[in-house]
């Protein structure tokens, strides 16, 4: 748990800088930050940050506002809110996502508004005839394979390709090799002080000679912290606001008490920040399948997440476990955990029991995690289990690595919805739900599909049933890489 220092404690330099408001330099741009989704404390932090750089930030949504900035990715609800709260027509203002704001902070001036920054007002509820739609605005009406992508990779996924590549700027290569070669225990990091070089390097933007290969936005600010398992945006921001910039800073701060998840996140950082290969995912599938069948011969294990979409690499491996005996699925999951522990391969487990209650559906909180029993694991994967061997960092001579695994356990009659939801991609899911709501007056989430016109739940045993209810052509999992 994180404890705050005594209020009388002297402020760190970063905090004092932030609270000093600078005279407004960019008079023509009046920013308004929308508190919804962003939260009050983050809004106030960003307001101070912008003002300290000479930006005008309005506290209220008035006629003076020229740029509205929101972290709410649900365009329809944001626009509905703006229309209800703006004194004039909100379409006269720039309605922008947070990327415009962060770009402007980095550039220390308001950057030009580009299409990528805009949060567009949603189309009216009447569907456009398919014949006039060239490319649908909804990802669930497009087929996107892994081949379609301009590979945008973060340092977490591409380290070995980058290190030593002469076309890559030296700062990025250095940063990359840092992440690649992280030792496995944070005690060593403390001694070696791996991260101080990040202090002055808030942002790198670089690309290799290969035009399809970009490394964008490697931020060395609080995003370094959110890369740790168990550290969310709020905690990362708290640490950053207290002047902490590097992992050793966090380790050396006596008032910070890491929770169990964060301790494991730091302890296994070197392993779990490196990508998991398809062969490693398959090996884990075999191990968990064995556990399932040792407990319940008719248990069902299904691979989901990015690997089900045909990705070659992922940050974790996601599985659904269930059983034909309705109501037995939760016991199955807890027994699998016991089994893995008994095998000596359970390095971390955060088990969350089911809070699923059909009578509380349909839910309107689409972005929230589902209510099924689930667990977030770190497992020890041994090299001999993996065809072709482990994905190892250079110089790592261990015959095992730690891997993040998620297991979710819905009752069998909810399986199709869970499978569709957990297969992703996140963008595909977002658009599927938006499409259901705006085009079909239906509510879709990981639990159910509700038809608001008929006022009833629609049953589904396969993903195809759900697409059919929505009047959509079926999109195969490997075409959902939006
Ligand atoms: N998901 C969900 N609800 C959440 C978070 C995720 O339904 N609150 C879904 C969307 C994708 C899927 O679960 C798996 O999540 P990730 O593992 O984060 O995504 P991924 O596509 O598997 O990506 P990666 O390959 O990096 O693991
Ligand atoms: Mg995944």
Automatic annotation (TrEMBL):
BP GO terms, sorted: double-strand break repair via nonhomologous end joining
Cofactors that this protein relies on: Mg(2+)
UniProt-annotated location(s): Nucleus
GO cellular component: nucleus
Membrane spanning stretches: none
Domain BRCT: 21-118
One Pfam family per UniProt: BRCT
Listed SUPFAM superfamilies: BRCT domain (SSF52113), Nucleotidyltransferase (SSF81301), PsbU/PolX domain-like (SSF81585)
Domain of life: Eukaryota
Molecular functions per Gene Ontology: DNA binding; DNA nucleotidylexotransferase activity; DNA-directed DNA polymerase activity; metal ion binding
Family: Belongs to the DNA polymerase type-X family.
Name this polypeptide is given: BRCT domain-containing protein
């Amino acid at each position: 748990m994180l404890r705050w220092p005594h209020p009388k404690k002297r402020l760190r330099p970063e905090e004092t800088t932030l609270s000093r408001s600078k005279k407004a330099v960019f008079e023509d741009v009046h920013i308004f930050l929308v508190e919804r989704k962003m939260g009050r404390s983050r809004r106030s932090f960003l307001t101070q940050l912008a003002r300290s750089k000479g930006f005008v930030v309005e506290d209220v949504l008035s006629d003076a506002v020229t740029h509205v900035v929101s972290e709410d990715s649900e365009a329809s609800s944001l626009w509905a809110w703006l229309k209800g709260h703006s004194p004039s027509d909100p379409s006269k203002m720039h309605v922008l996502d947070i990327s415009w704001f962060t770009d402007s902070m980095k550039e220390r001036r308001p950057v030009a508004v580009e299409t990528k920054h805009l949060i567009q007002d949603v189309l009216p509820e009447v569907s456009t005839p398919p014949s006039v739609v060239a490319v649908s605005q909804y990802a669930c009406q497009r087929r996107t394979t892994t081949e379609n992508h301009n590979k945008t990779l973060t340092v977490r996924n591409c380290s070995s390709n980058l290190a030593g590549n002469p076309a890559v700027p030296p700062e990025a290569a250095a940063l990359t090799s840092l992440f690649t070669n992280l030792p496995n225990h944070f005690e060593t990091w403390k001694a070696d002080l791996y991260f101080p070089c990040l202090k002055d390097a808030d942002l790198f933007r670089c690309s290799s000679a290969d035009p399809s290969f970009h490394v964008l936005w490697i931020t060395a600010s609080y995003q370094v912290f959110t890369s740790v398992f168990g550290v969310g945006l709020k905690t990362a921001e708290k640490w950053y606001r207290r002047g902490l910039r590097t992992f050793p800073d966090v380790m050396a701060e006596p008032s910070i008490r890491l929770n169990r998840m964060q301790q494991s996140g730091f302890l296994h950082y070197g392993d779990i920040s490196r990508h998991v290969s398809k062969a490693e995912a398959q090996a884990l599938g075999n191990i968990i399948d064995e556990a399932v069948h040792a407990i319940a011969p008719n248990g069902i294990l299904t691979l989901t997440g990015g690997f089900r979409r045909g990705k070659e690499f992922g940050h974790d491996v996601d599985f659904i476990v269930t059983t034909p005996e309705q109501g037995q699925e939760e016991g199955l999951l807890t027994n699998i955990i016991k089994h893995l522990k008994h095998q000596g391969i359970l390095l971390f487990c955060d088990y969350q029991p089911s809070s699923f209650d059909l009578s509380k559906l349909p839910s309107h909180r689409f972005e929230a995690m589902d209510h099924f029993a689930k667990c977030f694991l770190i497992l020890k994967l041994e090299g001999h289990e993996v065809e072709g061997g482990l994905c190892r960092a250079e110089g790592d001579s261990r015959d095992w690595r730690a891997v993040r695994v998620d297991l979710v356990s819905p009752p069998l009659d909810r399986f199709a919805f869970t499978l569709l939801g957990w297969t992703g991609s996140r963008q595909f899911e977002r658009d599927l739900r938006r499409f259901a709501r705006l085009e079909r007056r239906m509510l879709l989430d990981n639990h159910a599909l509700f038809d608001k016109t008929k006022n009833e739940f629609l049953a589904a045993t396969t993903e195809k049933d759900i697409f059919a209810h929505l009047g959509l052509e079926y999109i195969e999992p490997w075409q959902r890489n939006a």
